[in-house]
Amino acid sequence: MHWGKDHGTPLSLSLRSCPQANHKEKSTDIIIIKE
To answer: Which range of residues forms the domain containing residue 12?
Structure first.
């Protein structure tokens, strides 16, 4: 699930800010990046 950060997308910035807090959102971000 760390591949999302490699993409360097704006969503990844939120994950980097608080990976633990956005743990649930991480799944959503992956779906968005996938599309």
So the answer is: 3-34
